[in-house]
Design brief:
Residues 227-248 are annotated as: Disordered. By secondary structure, the protein is mainly alpha-helical. The chain contains 22 helices and 4 strands.
Length: 747
């Protein structure tokens, strides 16, 4: 209920306003813009005022609430206006961009066209520049002709200058270019002119090399003359005219020539020559050698080497000849050793000097041959007149040993390629000495073996062996004495043959030795056969056989170590089948003769020696067998003949034959027993006298024992089969046991 009292109503209205104000404060709203007194200050008197106040309050709240949205709407309108304005500007900007894009396309098209034109012009310019450079480069080779020719004609182009080799190299390039492009105009004419200049340049080089070499040679020769003069001055007070007498000073061309000392040769001939020639030639020759693949430079290098060899030969030849002549006063082996050693030293020094001037040249290809061949021939010319007169095989074999083993194998092999130019001359010298040795060996065989005339003491067998066995030293075992005694029993041709073969074995080639050995052994065997027949006539046939066996055994034993083929093949022409053709031709008939046949005959002296030894042993065995059991052999032969006759015409029995009577058998057995006890021991003693080797004696006596035992066995078999036991008992035949014991005791 409303209080009717004015005070109460006013209080209530004020309280309500406070409540509304608090409510607005809570909600965060403020009433703004109300004309008149503030709603908080309004005094409500009645309900109409309250309602009006409430209405105003509601309106104020509504106004306050809508004002935010109006402000926001106004802001949005402002933003919309700004956006529209921006859109207008963007559209205007896009239109400007489209205009710029169109203009850019136009500018780009024009720029691209301009760039392409520029690039085309630049490419054309580069092509023109390249063409001009190529044309200039090609013309440069042709333009060099005038420049190089002017230098040649002006005399500026000297070989000693530093520009000579580069200009020569440029000239080579021009010649190569012009020759490889013959399609160019006037290329043939330019090529001819270039080659003419090139020939002049090479001729200048050749003349320069010759000039420097000869100048260096003159300096060395002057130094040699000065050294000889000083050496002669020092020797004259000591030796006087005696030096000329012993060959140290010789007159030639009116001037006394004194050999240089060995130490001075190196200093003058090599060090002095190198110092004089090196400054002017070292670089020039190196440049020529670097271009040696071209044929003209190869020929120039060959000419320079030839000039070098000629100059060096003029310096060294006389000194080398003097040195070899000085060695020639020594014995031949010393001359050979000293001469080879000196020439090897010269070869080494010349090889080193040659490699110094021509380092890229191959000195082994024969470049030094014009120099080294004449120098090495000096030794050959000094040796040949001496060894060609030698008669002794020992001296010739000594020379072969020196050259073949000491010089060729040891010294040349140790010093290498530097001394290779000396090898051909030494091989030729060795071949000549071996040829002389072969000739002397053939003469030696003919004189000492084939033509040997034995003396009485050479054929005094068996007395010679008996005297040797009876010497007091024979009982003392001494290997040296035994070897000497063995040599004394050798027949002289056998000894000379073996001595000759032992010397020749390592001194001649295998084929030559085989031919000489075959000839020597065949001749020796024939000579020994003749001596055996002479011994048989002087003493007995058995002595001759044993002598032949002994000498043949010695010969076979001593030639066994030689690793050689003792055979030769003889070739002859056989015309025997052409006799009929010749007979028809002589008779006037047409005949076509064939070619003669080539007959080859192999002669092996070692096999022939074996055959001869075997045949001689068989003859000796049969001779001893006959000497011992000859009655038995004759009886067995007769028995065989009787049995053959009885098989054809049966008749009397064997023991009824006159030659087979028991009495005759008894006589035969007695004779054989006496031979076994007397003659066979004498033969065995003689065998031991001739054949000292027990093994040889046993081998030779074995078939004799077999023959004797077989003869006794056949007789015993006949006694058992053809005779009665009483008749067989009367025959004093040696039993097999006794015979074996007797024969074994003789061995």
């Amino acid at each position: 209920m409303v209080d009717a009292r004015p005070g109460a109503l006013a209080l209530s209205g004020r309280a309500f306003c406070w409540a509304a104000a608090e409510l607005m404060a809570v909600e965060g709203h403020a009433v703004l813009g109300v004309d008149g007194p503030s709603l908080e200050e309004v005094v409500l008197q009645n309900s109409s005022q309250f309602y009006r106040w409430h209405t105003e309050l509601e309106a104020a709240r509504t106004l306050e609430t809508e004002q935010k949205y109006r402000n926001y709407a106004d802001a949005l309108k402002g933003h919309l206006t700004s956006c529209n304005h921006l859109l207008e500007k963007v559209d205007s900007t896009l239109q400007g961009f489209d205009t710029l894009k169109t203009q850019h396309r136009n500018v780009s098209a024009k720029t691209r066209a301009l760039h392409e034109s520029c690039e085309r012009l630049v490419d054309e310019k580069e092509r023109l520049v390249e063409f001009a450079e190529a044309l200039r480069a090609k013309l440069a080779y042709f333009d060099e002709l005038e420049r190089i020719a002017s230098q040649f004609h002006s005399g500026v182009m000297a070989v000693d200058s530093d520009h000579f080799l580069p200009i020569l190299h440029r000239l080579d390039e021009c010649i190569t270019y012009v020759a490889s492009n013959p399609q160019y105009a006037d290329s043939t004419a330019y090529a001819g002119k270039f080659r003419q200049l090139h020939g002049r340049a090479l001729a200048t080089v050749r003349a320069k090399v010759q000039q420097v070499m000869r100048h260096a040679s003159e300096q060395v020769q002057a130094a040699i003359v000065e050294a000889k003069a000083s050496s002669s001055g020092r020797r004259k007070p000591e030796g006087g005219s005696g030096a000329a007498a012993n060959g140290l000073v010789r007159s030639g061309s009116g001037n006394a020539k004194v050999p240089l000392a060995e130490g001075a040769e190196t200093a003058l001939l090599y060090v002095r020559f190198r110092a004089a020639a090196e400054p002017g030639l070292k670089g020039l020759l190196a440049g020529v050698a670097a271009r040696a693949k071209r044929p003209e430079y190869a020929q120039l290098l060959t000419d320079c080497q030839r000039v070098y060899c000629e100059v060096r030969l003029g310096l060294v030849a006389e000194i080398t000849a003097d040195r070899i002549a000085e060695y020639a006063r020594e014995p031949l082996p010393s001359l050979t050793r000293s001469g080879c050693s000196y020439l090897m030293q010269v070869c080494q020094m010349e090889h080193q000097l040659f490699e110094h001037f021509f380092p890229e040249s191959d000195s082994d290809s024969g470049a030094l041959a014009p120099l080294m061949d004449p120098l090495c021939t000096v030794l050959y010319d000094a040796l040949r007149p001496v060894f060609i007169q030698l008669q002794s095989l020992d001296e010739l074999c000594g020379l072969v040993d020196i050259l073949q083993h000491e010089v060729l194998e040891e010294q040349l092999g140790r010093r290498g390629d530097a001394v290779a130019p000396l090898r051909p001359v030494l091989l030729r010298t060795l071949a000549d000495i071996q040829e002389r040795l072969t000739f002397r060996a053939q003469a030696f065989i003919k004189e000492e073996v084939t033509g040997f005339q034995p003396k009485a003491e050479d054929l005094d067998y068996p007395n010679k062996l008996v005297r040797l066995a009876e010497q007091p030293d024979a009982a003392v075992p001494d290997s040296h004495a035994d070897s000497l005694n063995a040599y004394t029993t050798w027949y002289p041709p056998v000894q000379q043959t073996l001595l000759c073969l032992s010397k020749l074995y390592r001194c001649v080639e295998a084929k030559v030795f085989a031919g000489l050995a075959q000839d020597a052994v065949s001749s020796c065997a024939a000579t020994v056969q003749m001596a055996a027949r002479a011994v048989g006539r002087r003493s007995s046939s058995m002595d001759g056989q044993l002598f032949l066996i002994k000498q043949l055994l010695i010969l076979r034993e001593q030639i066994a170590p030689f690793e050689a083929d003792f055979s030769v093949t003889e070739k002859d022409l056989d015309f025997t089948h052409m006799r009929d053709h010749l007979r028809r031709i002589l008779a006037g008939m047409l005949s076509l003769p064939g070619a003669p046949r080539l007959m080859e005959n192999l002669i092996d002296s070692k096999k022939e020696l074996e055959k001869l030894l075997k045949a001689t042993c068989e003859v000796f065995i049969m001779a001893v067998t006959k000497l011992t059991v000859e009655p038995m052999l004759s009886f067995i032969t007769k028995v065989t003949a009787v049995r053959v006759a009885s098989s054809l015409n049966p008749g009397r029995r064997l023991r009824e034959q006159a030659f087979a009577a028991p009495e005759r058998l008894e006589e035969m057995a007695v004779r054989v027993r006496e031979a076994l006890q007397k003659e066979l021991p004498a033969v065995v003693a003689k065998m031991r006298l001739y054949l000292n080797n027990p093994a040889t004696h046993a081998i030779l006596f074995k078939p004799i024992k077999s023959n004797i035992a077989e003869a006794h066995g056949q007789i015993a078999s006949l006694l058992e089969s053809e005779y009665t036991p009483e008749e067989a008992a009367r025959v004093p035949l040696t039993s097999p046991q006794q015979l074996a014991a007797l024969l074994d005791s003789l061995c």
